[in-house]
Specification:
5 helices, 2 strands, single chain
């Protein structure tokens, strides 16, 4: 019998930790108003969520396509904070590391909050 369990590398665990920390920091900054995603960031978050609407999986291919659509602008919009989140999410997208699923789920929840914003305003409040 062959053991086929994939043992997560130290790199995967580090990527999960970085994604978890960045997601928490961005969520806090969004909540307290010290970071306000702009229209491009909201549109890209919505695009990624729509791409994953059927299975809720934020795959590497879907994240790559979203970053590609944002091109150069996403790295400058909002100090590049969404680009950083997507970059860390990409690193964890298919990682088998412990905590990776929870980190992706938390990042997805933050993307939903970002996608619901229009020009710095919560659409739910309008």
């Amino acid at each position: 019998m062959t053991h086929t369990t994939v043992v997560p590398s130290g790199q995967d665990a580090l990527a999960v930790r970085r994604l978890t920390e960045l997601t928490a920091a961005l969520a806090q900054d969004l909540a307290d108003g010290s970071w306000t995603p702009g229209p491009l960031e909201a549109r890209l978050a919505r695009r990624l969520l729509l791409a994953s609407a059927g299975d809720h999986e934020l795959t590497a291919d879907r994240i790559r396509a979203t970053l590609w659509e944002g091109a150069v602008a996403v790295h400058h919009a909002g100090e590049g904070r969404l680009a950083a989140l997507l970059g860390h999410l990409f690193a964890v997208a298919e990682a088998p590391a412990p905590g990776a699923t929870a980190a992706r789920t938390t990042a997805r929840a933050l993307l939903e909050r970002i996608a619901d914003r229009e020009g710095g305003q919560d659409r739910a409040r309008d």
